[in-house]
Q: What sequence folds into this?
C-alpha cells in the first residue's frame, strides 16, 4: 500500500495523471482497459486482449476489482520468480496513471519468450474499483517486429474508461427485455448482472435482483429441487427461513421457485424469491430481494423481469 501511494504521488507531481493520452487506445469488448496495439496485433477473438496469431505474440488484459491489486503486487515482488530470468521491476507511467512494470524472459518448448507485466489500479473518480494486469508475451522469433521499445510504447498508451455497460450486457448468454423500473448496477465478470431500484447502488437499502447463468445443473427432475435449495443456502443472509419451495414452469422451461424471509443489514426484515430455470445441463438463476413491507409491489416487478429474460 505504501509503495502504491508513493507511485501515485510521484505521478501527480510529474503531471502524468492529467497529461495528454499518448495514443488512440483500442478497447477489447467489455473491458475498461485499452491500449494502442503494436505491430500487426488485433483484438483477439480467443481471449481478452490482442494477438498476432502468425507470430504467436499476445497481449492479455485482466480487468479486476480494486481489492485484487494487493495480491497482484505481492506476486510481482515475490522473491522467488521460478519461471522468469533476468527479472527487472520499475515504476512505469502510462496514459491513465502509473504502475509497476515487471520484465523478464522464460524458455517454453525450447523457445525464449520475452515477457512484460504491467499492473496498476485507478486513481480518481472517473473509473472506480479497477485493478489491471496487462501481460505481454513475445517469442524471440518476433522480436524484430515487437522490440522492447515497441512494447513499451504500447504499454505507455494504456488507458481506462468507465465500465461499458451495454457492451458487457451484450456479452451475457441471456438478454434482458424487461427491466420493470430497475436499472443495471453492475455486469459481473462471471456472466451475471445486478439490477437495483433506487438513486444509488446501496443494495442493502434498496430492492435488487441478481441474474446469472451457469452450467452444472442436474438433468434429473427429482434432483432439481435439492439443487435449487443448495444454491439458496449459499446466500449471505442471516436467519434464512424458507416459506415456499416448489417446481414450476418458467417461460416454458422447467424451473423451481423458492420464497424465503431473512434478516438484512440495518435491522431490515427482507423477503426474497429465487427462481431457477433449467436448460439442458445449464441453468438461469434469478434472485429478487426487497424489504418485507415492499414485497407485494416488488414481487410483481421481479416476475416481470424474469419473464422478459431470453437466452441468446
A:
Amino acid at each position: 500500500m505504501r509503495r502504491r501511494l508513493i507511485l501515485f504521488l510521484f505521478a501527480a507531481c510529474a503531471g502524468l495523471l492529467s497529461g495528454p493520452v499518448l495514443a488512440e487506445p483500442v478497447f477489447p469488448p467489455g473491458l475498461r482497459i485499452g491500449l494502442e496495439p503494436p505491430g500487426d496485433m488485433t483484438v483477439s477473438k480467443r481471449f481478452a486482449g490482442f494477438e498476432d496469431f502468425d507470430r504467436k505474440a499476445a497481449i492479455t488484459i485482466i480487468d479486476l476489482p480494486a481489492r485484487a491489486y494487493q495480491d497482484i503486487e505481492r506476486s510481482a515482488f515475490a522473491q522467488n520468480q521460478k519461471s522468469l530470468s533476468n527479472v527487472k521491476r520499475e515504476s512505469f507511467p502510462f496514459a491513465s496513471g502509473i504502475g509497476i512494470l515487471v520484465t523478464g524472459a522464460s524458455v517454453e518448448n525450447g523457445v525464449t519468450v520475452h515477457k512484460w507485466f504491467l499492473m496498476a489500479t485507478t486513481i480518481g473518480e472517473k473509473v472506480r474499483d479497477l485493478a489491471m494486469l496487462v501481460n505481454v508475451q513475445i517469442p524471440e522469433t518476433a522480436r524484430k517486429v515487437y522490440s522492447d521499445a515497441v512494447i513499451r510504447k504500447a504499454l505507455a498508451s494504456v488507458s481506462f474508461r468507465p465500465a461499458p455497460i451495454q457492451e458487457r450486457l451484450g456479452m451475457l448468454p441471456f438478454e434482458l427485455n424487461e427491466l420493470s423500473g430497475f436499472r443495471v448496477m453492475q455486469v459481473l465478470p462471471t456472466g451475471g448482472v445486478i439490477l437495483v431500484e433506487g438513486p444509488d447502488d446501496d443494495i442493502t437499502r434498496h430492492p435488487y435482483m441478481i441474474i446469472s447463468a451457469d452450467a452444472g445443473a442436474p438433468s434429473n427432475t427429482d434432483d432439481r429441487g435439492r439443487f435449487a435449495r443448495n444454491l439458496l443456502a449459499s446466500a449471505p443472509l442471516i436467519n434464512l427461513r424458507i416459506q415456499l419451495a416448489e417446481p414450476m414452469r418458467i417461460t416454458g422451461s422447467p424451473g423451481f421457485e423458492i420464497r424465503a424471509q431473512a434478516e438484512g443489514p440495518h435491522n431490515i426484515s427482507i423477503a426474497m424469491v429465487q427462481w431457477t430455470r433449467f436448460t439442458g445441463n445449464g441453468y438461469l438463476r434469478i434472485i429478487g430481494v426487497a424489504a418485507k413491507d415492499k414485497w407485494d409491489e416488488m414481487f410483481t416487478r421481479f416476475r416481470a423481469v424474469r419473464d422478459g429474460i431470453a437466452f441468446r
About this structure: Residues 117 and 135 are 5 Å apart (CA to CA). The first strand starts at residue 33 and ends at 34. Confidence is low (pLDDT under 50) at residues 1-22. The domain at 2-160 is CATH 3.40.1000.10 (Protein Transport Mog1p; Chain A).
